[in-house]
Amino acid sequence: MAPFDSPSIVLSGFRERAEALHVQGDRLYVGTATGNLHVYSIDDSTSEGEAIASLVETKKSLTRRSIEQLGFIKDINSLIVLSEGLPTLFPIPNFAPPTPLAKAKGALSFAVHSSVQDIMPEAGPQSGDGQFAKAIPTMVTQVIIGCRRKVVIYTWRDGETQEVQEAVLPHSPRAIVFLDNDNVCFAYSPTEYAVFSIAKLTTVEVTTPVTASTSMGTFSGLTGYMTLGLGAKAKPGLIRLNDTEALIVKDNQGFIVGAEGKQTRTNTIDWPSPPEEIAFVSPYIFSILPPGTVPVSVAGSTHMSASATQPSTFPSHVVQIRSSISNLPPQTIPFPFGTAISISPPATATAHCTMRLMTSLPSAKSPLYVVTTPTDRTVAATEGTSIWRIGMKPWGDQLDELVQSGLYSDALSLLDSIDSAVLSDKDERRTPIRALHAVSQFSLGKYDDAINTFLELDLNPAKVVALYPESVSGRLSVPRDSWIPLYGGPATQPEDTTSTSSSDTSKEGKDPIREKLVRNALERSPSPVGSVRQRTKTSFAALLPSGPKDDDAASISSRKGRKPNDDFHRSVETLLRYLTDRRPKVAGALAVVHITPAQSHQIAFLSETSTEDLFALPNLPLSSLTPEQLLRFAQIIDTALFKSYLLTRPTLLGPLCRVSNWCEVSEVEEELRAREKHAELIYLYNGKKMHSKALNLLRQLNENEPDIRDRLQPSISYLQKLGPEHLEQIFESSRWVFGQDRDMAFEIFTSEDVELPRSPVADYLERIDPQLCARFLEYLIDEKGEESQVFHDRLVELYLSMTLTAQKRKDKKIRSIIYAKLLEFINTTHHFSIDRLYGLLSSEDLFEARAILLGRMGKHQHALELYVYKLQDYSKAEEYCKRVYQPGTETSNVFLILLRIYLRPTVKTSSNLLQPALDLISRHSPRLDSVETLQLLPPLVTTQDVQTFLLETLRAPIFDTHVVREIHKARAESVARKLMLLETRRVKVTDSRICPQCHKRIGNSVIAVHAPRGEVTHYQCREAFALKLTELRVR
């Protein structure tokens, strides 16, 4: 599809020669060679969609001679007309009175430029009150008029005329275009150009490389001479492209220059011959090429006759449309417009005419007008002049065509040149085109550029990963020919059958390819009618050059010579950069909604979501995604990162597996097994809470180890780290460990890393072996300080049941061990239910246990009776009394109770209990009540048997107490006498008393009294006098 519609005729049969044209609003102003001005109204509302010009009025003889140029000054609502070398202002709509711009006599051309500028007030930047004045937005219109060797500048500010400026020039400007409100480009001749600064009133010559004509061979430089006397004097070609660039024409080449007079782009435009006229409708450059210079193939299929044999060149003028972005022609329109090409030249002279391009507006907006006049005077008199309008197709259609052709770089450049006001969905279109461009770059091996774009666009990571082979992307992988459709592009890509390189560059469409094409065109031998390398098409696919490959295309060829693994490794390294950039950002977005990788086992697996749903995830910033979408992004990223590490950086797999992640296990576990990355796989299982798989793998890996500890320790260590939420898994996986070694298996439940629920563990161990349960309860009580009565009761009951079981099996050794533990436990701990245990004991067995329990219940007599009568263990009975005896309490008579049991038995016994009673009396007489003890003794007991008891009893402590009392009394009286004596000693100080040390009167001074004679000195003299007394005593 061409960017412009076929030219439609606006006005035909115009009997005068149109020399100037201007469109303002819905008015078309046509200036003629006779000085007449025709005003037409343009109606765009016709049913066929074509514009029709209706004559409004004709100003006969507006000027005496030909109207050379027309313009419009909006500030003063006037038409500026250049005729006879003098520009004149004609107010609209009356065109009277005219205002000649007298200072611009001898004018050759002019240009009008309007802009809004911030102008400071004339008083200066600082106002009278000391405050800085603000700049005022002002509409400024500038008209620069090129005269003979000078330039005149007229300026209006908000419609008010300003002072006229003049500047002398080295040559006369014959064409003028504004770059911005300060810089203007002049054309002195078809080969001489300059850039003029309005602020400095200086010019800079435009310098370009020496041209190498490709159209007229050796005679290309004789163009001016060949046209002498033929009425076809060459015109300078100059148009404005944007605020910083202009296009100048030298021979058959176009150069893009800037405000400094230098080329701003290294590539140039090559026409098959020097263009007769050029114009600009952003972003396209129009040129009129003479007959016989453009190959027929350039026109494309739009104007081709399928049945006719194509001539080599067009026999008539051709309007060629080039993109200022790529410098290549997407459309060529031969004259006559809208007719098929015939085998031979036209029978009539209609095709032989003069053509002129006239831009409708200075802002370079569509549409463009073409004026055609037959060269034959008879035909011209009959048919007259025709005015055609070339309208641009919608921007959206042009962009779609570029995308269809795979020219994503050109589509982006075109999009940048379009104003948002005329393309409402400009921003919405940019993202998918940039994404397609990045895919094209990726396919060409420009991985870094592609990944940078993916990062900027916040693309769905599923689509990014899908560009990689299955070893990286898994089930997300798509074939290369499906990449573009995956990113919203066309299902099939058009290919250029005439050139190998065009099919490659169609995916990229970047300017360097076209630059190389132009450079090669300069180096080729001249061709008067163009060559195959200069061919174009009518659609946007014409932007694909068929010349030699540039650096990008060459890189494709070089890639063919490299090892595939080099490109693959480089692409995966670039993917790692993408994934490591996305990973923390996605994790941060999930953290905002309180989702962490530690919860990954609670989330549906990535494999449960279809690839269609994954590719359908939106391309939005992370903050705009739902938690479900963020989770899918995290799973895709971590799975791809895992596979990339597996292929390029296997040493990083361990750290990745050891931290919480969102990796899809089913995608990588087989590859890890194949590469024997068992440790990483176990870490991954652990992170995903797949403990059964991890434990089974540990068991398989170590089952052939000869050492039992080496065989079991890995599984034990793994189980020790599992928390209470995996209790059932611990129970299930520990059974085989118990079957191997119970002592080692018991370590699973005594780990310091985690705390398991104690009751379920005890139940589980009891089912395996009550001794394991008892061991676990002992561990809880002894090492963990468990004080719960539940566990104490359970342990003591286990002891009891194991004792009875061993007793039934007649296993005396086990019984004695367990029974000893039972006795020690009930004798030392206070956290079990005594009554409950006592109720479980049989009255016919375990007497010592019953005795301890009775004692714990305060029933000491019953306890001692069991020791004496049932166990007949008198030493334990005596030890019991020692343990519970407390003077001054209810247990202070426990020895007497035991003595009574000995001497007054309540049951029949054959044992002689007198001797144990006498031994008790002899050893513990101080703890026995003397009177009651004597009363309990049988009559036949001799004094000799209780001698020790009697001595202790009869020994009275009264004497000793009296002596001590008298000594204390005597001591107290002695101290009282000394105190009385000291209190009676005193000294008298009178007014006449003299200090024996300084021999001065003491008076009211502070004194010191010296022992033993009572000398009185001043306080400050005390030390000297005391020293003197000491010396006297020594003598």
TrEMBL record:
Q: Where is this region: Disordered?
A: 487-567
Name its cellular compartments. Endomembrane system
Keywords of this entry: Membrane
GO BP field: autophagy; endosomal vesicle fusion; intracellular protein transport
Q: Membrane topology per the record?
A: Peripheral membrane protein
Coarse class of the protein's main subcellular location:
membrane
Q: Where are the CHCR repeats?
A: 748-907
Family according to the record: Belongs to the VAM6/VPS39 family.
This protein's name? CNH domain-containing protein
